[in-house]
């Protein structure tokens, strides 16, 4: 029989409390929670939503022909270290995963599935949230909670502080949304565009003055980073303008002289001009000046 270490006195009765057993139960419950959190955190590191956008993790996976990553690297991540610094606990947690597998020697881990292909549609189901009120402080947990519904939770939440380098997958988005890299911004990915659109509505209800849009849209058009390429485009447009001007002048002269008598000729000329108008686009205003 186990000897109780603590005896509480309540009134005239003695109540024996088996403290050691209760402590053991609490320890095991806490350990199970930690194991589950470690598994979920590591599954996130290797997930389809994160792996292609996390350059460090992607490099680690690609550095091995079979996709193995040293557990020692994963165990150094701050979020894992907050949960445990015991290698055996990490091995136990990942051994329970249906998405990851641990090597026989217990020193490496990898995805069970091959690396996913890049999905260009991701920009149409990802939103940017920035220009929030000064008293608003957001964390990964708060953002996830805010945008979690009965239907689903965000696939990926990334928070960017001002002055921090923007990852390569968001470079193009930075041209559309200049707040990226200059202001505190949250970039949130969803499973589909419908969920992303609902999240935009929810964010605008919470913060009416905030800037919240799909990554694929913005208030600013991307700038052309290559001036030579831009110069070629302008030269190409000007060439067409000159040709169009010549055609217009020719039509004016021929029309006055009665030389355009064929309906086919008139139709072909009209179609040709329509094609020029379409190609010239924003440069059409230069035609009268050349004429």
Automatic annotation (TrEMBL):
Localisation:
Nucleus
Q: Does the keyword Acetylation apply?
A: no
UniProt domain HTH La-type RNA-binding: residue ranges: 28-119
Q: Which Gene Ontology biological process is one annotated for this entry?
A: RNA processing
What does UniProt give as GO cellular component? nucleus; ribonucleoprotein complex
Q: Which InterPro entries match?
A: La_dom_prot, La_HTH, Lupus_La, WH-like_DNA-bd_sf, WH_DNA-bd_sf
GO MF annotations in UniProt: mRNA binding
Signal peptide (from-to): none
Alphabetic keyword roster? Nucleus, RNA-binding
Question: Which PANTHER family does its entry note?
Answer: ACHILLES, ISOFORM A, LUPUS LA PROTEIN-RELATED
- Name of protein: HTH La-type RNA-binding domain-containing protein
Tell me the organism.
Opisthorchis felineus
Q: What is the lineage of its organism?
A: Eukaryota, Metazoa, Spiralia, Lophotrochozoa, Platyhelminthes
């Amino acid at each position: 029989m186990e000897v109780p270490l603590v005896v509480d006195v309540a009134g005239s009765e003695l109540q024996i409390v088996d403290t050691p057993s209760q402590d053991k139960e609490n320890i095991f419950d806490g350990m199970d929670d930690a194991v589950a959190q470690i598994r979920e955190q590591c599954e996130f590191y290797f997930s389809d939503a994160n792996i292609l956008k996390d350059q460090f993790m992607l490099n680690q996976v690609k550095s091995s022909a079979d996709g193995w990553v040293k557990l020692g690297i994963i165990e150094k991540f701050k979020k894992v270290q907050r949960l445990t610094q015991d290698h055996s606990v990490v091995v136990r947690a990942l051994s329970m995963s249906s998405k990851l597998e641990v090597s026989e020697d217990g020193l490496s881990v990898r995805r069970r599935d091959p690396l996913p292909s890049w999905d260009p549609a991701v920009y149409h189901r990802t939103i940017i949230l920035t220009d929030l009120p000064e008293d608003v402080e957001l964390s990964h947990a708060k953002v996830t909670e805010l945008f979690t519904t009965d239907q689903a939770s965000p696939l990926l939440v990334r928070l960017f502080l001002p002055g921090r380098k923007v990852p390569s997958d968001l470079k193009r988005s930075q041209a559309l949304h200049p707040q990226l890299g200059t202001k505190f911004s949250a970039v949130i990915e969803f499973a589909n565009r419908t969920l992303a659109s609902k999240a935009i509505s929810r964010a605008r209800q919470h913060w009416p003055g905030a800037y919240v849009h799909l990554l694929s849209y913005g208030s600013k058009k991307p700038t052309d980073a290559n001036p030579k390429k831009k110069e070629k485009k302008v030269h190409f447009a000007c060439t067409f303008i000159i040709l169009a001007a010549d055609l217009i002048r020719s039509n004016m002269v021929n029309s006055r002289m009665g030389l355009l008598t064929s309906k086919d000729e008139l139709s072909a000329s009209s179609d040709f001009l329509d094609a020029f108008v379409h190609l010239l686009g924003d440069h059409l205003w230069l035609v009268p000046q050349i004429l």
